What does this fold into?
Amino acid sequence: MKKSYHKAIFDRIPHKRRHKIIDVAIDEFANKGFDHANINQIATGAGVSVGSLYKYFDTKEDLFLTCVLFGVETLQAVLDELLTSPGDLFSRIEKIVRIIQRHSREQKTLIIFYNEMTSESNTRLTRELASRMETLSAGIYSALIREAQKAGEVHPEISPDLFAFFLDNLFMMLQFSYACSYYRDRFKIYAGEKILEQDELVVAQFMRFFKGALQQPD
It folds into this structure.
């Protein structure tokens, strides 16, 4: 797998300009999709010429994949923070839920972009990078569950790999529910119009559901 999809010159431009280009490109791809995203609009929004963009990226596809890689690296940073934090499985899961709530608001466009990049129309572009992202989270979640089983916190008959899959689906749906308009509306239909203002309720009910599924009965 490539380590980067941009030209070396892109790494030499100022950090602020580099991030501006990525931010504007993510916004364009998130809101219009890959096929309809416009390089001219990205260049204008980022305050650079179209010619400069092509000095940094060979193709629109390479710019898109650079944005995807940025998303993967952002996820890596979040998971690294989780792995180095103290606590048992359930306290770490609660931290992830709170991170999702915060991150989905602070990085709303990135979450919308992630939703767009996982669509069937983009499979050809993102299959390899998406696999890298999912393999990363799958390994971490299943390892946490195995660790909790050894500590007697989780029922021994639970499949760590399957429950890691179930857990990741819950996390993915939750972040979409805070960031993407369709999923936000769906969230409100199920949980009420004010649910987006009730973070503590969501955390408490998520943890009740999760503990009920994994813990051994008394």
About this structure: The two ends are 48 Å apart (CA to CA). DSSP finds eleven helices and no strands in the chain.
